[in-house]
Structures are given as C-alpha cells and as structure tokens.
Amino acid sequence: MVGDVRIASSLPGGFFRTVVGMRIDLIRAAATNEAVPHEEWPTVVRRRRLVVCIVLVAGAMLMAYSLTRPPGDASFYLLTMVLAVVWTLGSLLSGPLHLGRTAWRTNAKRPVITGAVTGLVVGAVFLLGGLVVRHIPAVADPITNVLEYTNHGPLLLLVLIAMVNGVAEELFFRGALYSALGGFYPVVISTVLYAAATFATGNPMLAFAGVILGAVCGVQRRATGGVLAPVLTHLVWGLMMVLLLPLVFGL
User: Fold this and answer.
1) Which end of the chain has the lower number of beta carbons within 10 A, N or C?
2) How far apart are CA 143 and CA 127, in angstroms?
3) Distance between CA atoms of 210 and 199, rounded to whole angstroms?
4) Can you spell out the DSSP letters for the chain?
C-alpha cells in the first residue's frame, strides 16, 4: 500500500486522488459493514429501556416547547441547553456507550474521517436541496421559520447550541435508544422515533431532516458499533446548517 501511495503521489494530482480514494474506501466500509453487537446483561437492558422511554417523551416535549419561543427570546437558549442535558443524562443513565470502530483494510480504526466526511456530504446535499426548495413557498416557509433563530442572538452562542445538541441527540438516539432496541430493527426504529421527536415541534421540514439524518447516522451506528461516527456527522451537518443554509435562503 505504501508503494502505491508513493507512486500515486508522484503523478499530477495523484496525491489528491489517493486521499479521496482512501476517504471513499472508509465511507464504503462504514456503509456496508455491520459491527458485532455489544452483549448486555438482562438487567442492563431493562434499565436502559425504562430510562429511554422516559427520556424520549420528556425530550420530545421539551424540544417542541423550545421552538414555540420567539426567535431571540432568552428562554429559547435556556430550553435548548436544558434539552441537551436531558438527552445526555438519559444516555449516561441508561447504560454504557461505545465509540465504535470501522474496519479498513486489515486495521480497525476510530471512524473519525468517516463521520466527518459523511457530515460534509450530507450537508452539501441539504444545501443543494435548499437552492431548489427556496422557490417553493410551501416547503421554504417552514424552513425559514426555523432559520429565523439564526438571525437573533450571538452567532457563537447559536453555534455552541447546535454543537452541544448535536452531540446530545446522537448519544441518546444512536447510543442509548439504539442499544435499547437490541436486534429489533434498530436503524429503522431509531430513525422513526428521532423523526417523531422532531415532528413534535409541528414543523414537517424538521421531521424530514430527521428522517434523512437519522437514517445516515443509524447506518453508521450499525456499521461501527458506536456513537463517534454519528456524532461527527451530526456536528459537521449541524454547523453547515447554522452557518450556510441561512445564506442559501437569503437570511
């Protein structure tokens, strides 16, 4: 492999093609592999499922209420940070969480590159979609209603909220909830419940985004056996939505 890299790097554009090829191999591995499930004692499973049920209902209600606050209202920032605490505490109380690994060639690696690059790809797809749907009022209006929050308050605080909540949501939905489902269609069910929690806000476009992002992160969780790749994907995607999507909609 070292020799191949050296040869490719010596050609015009070879280094770039080599790096891109490595990234594609890692993403393909994460999309097609299935990690060995983590075996847990029945008592841990029962506790996890009880905690997950309680936190899921509480978190969905809090998420819905936070988006009833007017853009710029101080309570919005407080509620969203409390929501992150609820997701995170629920995840930690439910049982052990795992970072996960992805198999590439003969090595098992932490899926850092896979998660980050996937976030860039998903974010780019959403931005391209925004260029199209911004001309469709029925679709653009719900998106604009959410993006209005980015026009109020310090940008640094909004970025912090997006990052903290992105991590917290993945710890819960692709960590605690996914594990609680065991072998019962965890990718599908965790995605549906994530979309349902976002739909509780009354905004259909948030639910649509939840389906896409939840499915991608669910597949990563299945492939790697942990939350690191989904967390990084959500982080990168969330930052692109906060910083770039408002520009697409002219806000």
Assistant:
1) N
2) 12
3) 8
4) -HHHHHHHHHSTTHHHHHHHHHHHHHHHHHHH--PPPPP--HHHHHHHHHHHHHHHHHHHHHHHHHTTSPTT-HHHHHHHHHHHHHHHHHHHHH-------EEETTEEE--HHHHHHHHHHHHHHHHHHHHHHTT-HHHHHHHHHHHGGGGSS-HHHHHHHHHHHHHHHHIIIIIIIHHHHTTS-HHHHHHHHHHHHHHTTT-HHHHHHHHHHHHHHHHHHHHHSSSHHHHHHHHHHHHHHHHTHHHHTT-
Tokens of 240: 């692109």
Contact 26/111 with Cβ under 8 angstroms?
yes
- For residue 135, give the amino acid letter: H
For 154-212, write each residue's pLDDT tens digit. Answer: 888 889 999 999 999 999 999 999 999 988 899 999 999 999 999 888 888 888 999 99
CA distances to 61, 170, 203 from 143, rounded to whole Å, are: 20, 22, 8
Q: 């990234």: which residue's tokens?
A: 23
What's the rounded Cα separation, in Å, for the pair 87 and 90? 5
Q: Would you say the C-alpha torsion 184, 193, 166, 123 has a positive or negative sign?
A: positive
Residue 58 clears pLDDT 90, i.e. is over it: yes
Q: What is the pTM of this model?
A: 0.82
What pLDDT does residue 21 have?
47
For the chain, what are the domain ranges? 2-248
Site of tokens 């992105």: 166
Give 82-103 pLDDT, tens digit per residue: 999 999 999 999 988 989 887 6
* Residue 108, phi then psi, degrees to nearest 5: -110, 120
